[in-house]
Structures are given as structure tokens and as C-alpha cells.
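[agent] plan:
  1. take the single chain provided in the ticket
  2. run structure prediction with default settings
  3. attach C-alpha cells to the ticket
  4. add a short note for the reviewer (M.T.)
[agent] executing step 1
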Amino acid sequence: MLVSVIIPVFNVEDYLPSCLDSVLSQTHREIEVILIDDGSTDSSGKICDEYALKDSRIKVIHKANSGVADARNAGIDAASGDYIAFIDSDDYTDQDYIGYLLGLCTANSSDLACCSHRVLNSGKESNYRFRKTDPGKYTGKSDVMKAFLTTRLLSVSVWGKLFKRKLFDNIRFPAGKTFYEDDSTMYRLVSESGSAVLGAEPKYVYRLHGESLIHKNTPDESLKLIDIMEDQLRLMEEHYPELVPYGKANIIMAVNHCVMKHAEYGLFHFGSKNRLKKYYREYEKFFLKGISYMPAKLFSVTAYISIPFAMRIYRLLHRVYRAEV
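[agent] step 2 finished; step 3 output follows
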């Protein structure tokens, strides 16, 4: 059974070989590897071409830079597999990554499968610790969506997952997006899934480094996550009314993220503060009943009382943490 592995590539010459080596060594051999060189200015494009000469399963698409969302869409359009997997070009996987996920899908007749992951930071790997995992099979769109909203193992990231190709018949990543493109897309894919299976084995390795996009997100960009969560809430209200409280809790998660991002930049006075206050007043109770860690709930309560005070506490704790590590 053919699996299309889609890998957007942009200026990752230091990490790309280890990513490709891990993909090409998969125990499930029936794969096509689609590399989308998104206008790289380093040697990443050349590395793609060199690997394509060594292995006929690799297809390379060179295109002008337009962001990871467009790159993934180009990969989807070129894919011919029964299933689709996404891997970030600075990450890598275990050799049985595809086989593990495909086995979960086929054994359970599922549209979607996911696994846990490890984090590589400063040369050391560690298992990612989830608040709530609940591995197993989920059947029916409502149960799958609830798993997405509550387990965290079925996360918003499209990596660490295997999708049936049909899920993308009417879904693409939002054109031009560089941040939160997964958040904009994953809940829609989940909504199309009649069944999902969550595996607990950590088969994917997420690499943290100084050039990771996670470090380049700005306060203005963080506001867009709230818009995405509002779109998600509208989907809940229309199709999953029993899950609306979880959607409201996710809005506060996004608001907390936005407040923290402004705190990191020292922006204590920003125009959207009143908008954020409104969300806290309206949805805070749903967040406090949710599955988030207690520190997140304490931060949220503090921000409910005073956003500037919560920002100052966050900056202080952030400086202490960085000093310790």
C-alpha cells in the first residue's frame, strides 16, 4: 500500500540529510517521498536533487518561496498514495514510523492514525509528556472530534500522523500561512474522519533549534490563533453542539498564548487587550473545567483579573527558568 510522504524544505541544509536518511530507511518500503523545495537559498535544493538521484522513490518540486502551507499543498496535489504523511524537514523518524502508523490504520480500518513523539533539544532526546493521552480507537465523527479536543495525543500538528488520501479531497492548508497552518487545517481533517486510532509509541522526533519557526512567531501573529479557534468553535456549534464547551476552552488557550507572546516581547500596552478581556469574561469558566495543566489555569485566572499583572509574572518566571537551564 503506497504512502506519500510530503516534506516541505526551506533552508535546512544542516538537518535535511538526517531527515531523508530516516525516511528512506523505513521498514515499509512502498513509499513515495515528495520534497518541495520552497525557494531555499542555501544548499537544501541541491541536497534534494542529490537524494533523488540515489532513490527513485523521491520526487522533487522546486518552487518560489510562498510558505509551508503552499508547499504542503503542492505535495498533496502531486501525491498518488493511498495514505499521506507529513514530516518536517528538520525532524526525523524511527525506521518503523510509517509501518507503525499504517498498521494502526489498516488493522482498525481507520481514516487517521497518530503516534506520540520525542523531542530533540540540545542533542538530547526525551519523550514528550502529555497531560492526557487515552490511546485507542475512536469511531464516529463526534468521538473522533472529542478525542482531538481532549486527549492531546491527537494534536494539532500534522506530523506524527497518517491520513487517508480521501480526507484531502476538499481540504487544503490555508494559502500563504507560515504560522498556525496546522491549527487551521487539522480540525477540519478530523471532522472528515469517521474513525481514528491513537498509538502511544513515540515514533517521531521533533527537533528544537534556534531556527525553528516556533521561535519566530510574533505577537501580531499570535492573535491569528484566536481567529482560528473562533472558526473551530463555529464548526462545533454547527456540527458538534455537545462539544461546544471544549471549543470555548480552546479559545482561552489561544488567548493565554497571545498574552504570553506579548509578555515575551514586553508589550504591556497593545490595542487588542480589551478584546482579550472580553474572551476571559465569556469563556474562562470552560477553560477552568478543561484538561489543561494547573499552571495554565492559574495563569488564566491571573489574566482574568489583570492581563498586565499576568504578563509581568510570566516574564519573571520565564527569566528564572532561562537562568536555571
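[agent] step 4 note for reviewer: Residues 321-325 have pLDDT under 50 and may be disordered.
[agent] ticket updated
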